[in-house]
Amino acid sequence: MMRSRQGWAAIMMALSVTACSQLQPPTPHNTTGQFVLPKQFSLAGRIGVKLENKGHYGNFDWQHDSGSDQLDILSPLGQTVARLSADQNGVRLQQGERIYEAASAEELTQKTLGWGLPLDNLRFWIHGQPAPHTAYQATASGFRQQGWLIESEPQGSVHPQRIILQRPQLDIRFAIHRWN
Amino acid sequence: MTVRFALVKKSRRWPALLALMSLLATPSAFADGVAELKRFVSETQSLKADFQQEVSGRDQKSEQARGTLQLSRPGKFRWIYQKPYEQWIIGDGKRLWVYDRELAQVTSRQLDEALGSSPAALLAGKNEIERDYQLRNLGKADGLEWLEAVPKTAESGFRHFRMGFRTGNLISMVLTDNFGQTTRLSFSNIKKNPAIEAGEFLFTPPKGVDVIQQ
């Protein structure tokens, strides 16, 4: 118990050091070896969202299959609390009997939950990789892209166990216990 | 509660009579699921068990988790997922705490708002099950007496759940949510009415974790 707490403290220390290192000039990035998004992937874990000191927390299950996504937010027991579906026809959020629709996931979650989930970029970020065709800056522990700071552990893995997305006043964390 | 008290009182006065009564009580006295639930609720002031959870319903894949539970009536419980991730769900009687160690986050909210979101909360309550759910006997299957509980309001997040009992012990629970997904809980190493230290139901967020009010 004590030992793992110390381990955790070390990670927190590492993260706060990272925060300082963002002030350093960005390392030029290498454009070769661009990450190609798998046609299909699925993962399960927990998501924690902090918006100032309010937020959301839940288990999640995400399935991506050739251009369509289904992201379920589940209770600890596995009941589906909300389902976000995205495909070429748009994005839907189903919460109980209610269904909301919008053109993008970010707009939809911003409207319904009060914070925007950048799903289009997240498909890449969740793999610890920057999204293609958009500038990014590497940092000591991750990268910055489109106003977000993205950090993953283990760094460099395309199947990370932890991802932290941060922008001012918003912190979205993923802990992943299953990758397929 | 009052029934239990009366029985305890009686048992002091007429232990032989009570013994005879229980001998006379044929298995059919507790033979249906609803009666088993009532027996479970009236007999169980505290409980310890291990649980296994299996969530299925999508692409034939199932998500498995396991852990331990402790509860003390009314309203206190400690439901801990240990594998494959660590998630603590603690009801201290007033608030519900959910601690995710890997995310270093704790969420906290009023327990009454959160009731129904965890079977531990349901089981730890007084008689919320009968107040909030329509109960129906399903008969015997796999050596257990089953009942089905359908929530009276749509807010609970699940369509129905089933509880399987054997000799006054809750052995299995199957919950079906509004999306057709099914969660099966199996309980083992069940200890009825063990002494549990009050501290087990208290939660203090560890230093350095984010506390989120939900």
Describe the structure.
The complex is a heterodimer of chains A (180) and B (214). Chain A is an alpha+beta fold and 180 residues long. Chain A has a single domain (2-179), classed as outer membrane lipoprotein receptor (LolB), chain A (Clam). Chain A has three helices and eleven strands, in the order αββββββααβββββ. Chain A has helices spanning 2-21, 105-113, 119-125, and strands at 40-51, 54-65, 68-74, 80-87, 90-95, 98-102, 137-138, 142-145, 148-153, 162-167, 170-179. Chain A has an eleven-stranded antiparallel beta sheet with strand order 6-5-4-3-2-1-11-10-9-8-7, with helices on one face. The longest helix of chain A is centred in the N-terminal third of the chain and has 20 residues, at 2-21. Chain A is globular, with a radius of gyration of 17 Å. The two termini of chain A are 30 Å apart. Residues 1-32 of chain A have low confidence and may be disordered. Chain B has 214 residues and is α+β, with helices and mostly antiparallel strands. Chain B has helices spanning 2-13, 15-24, 33-43, 111-114, 119-124, 128-132; strands spanning 46-58, 61-72, 76-83, 87-92, 95-100, 105-110, 133-141, 144-151, 158-166, 169-177, 182-192, 210-213. A twelve-stranded mixed beta sheet of chain B has the order 7-8-9-10-11-1-2-3-4-5-6-12. In chain B, strand 5 (95-100) and strand 6 form a beta hairpin. Chains A and B meet through helix 1, strand 1, strand 2, strand 4 and strand 11 of A and strand 1 and strand 12 of B.
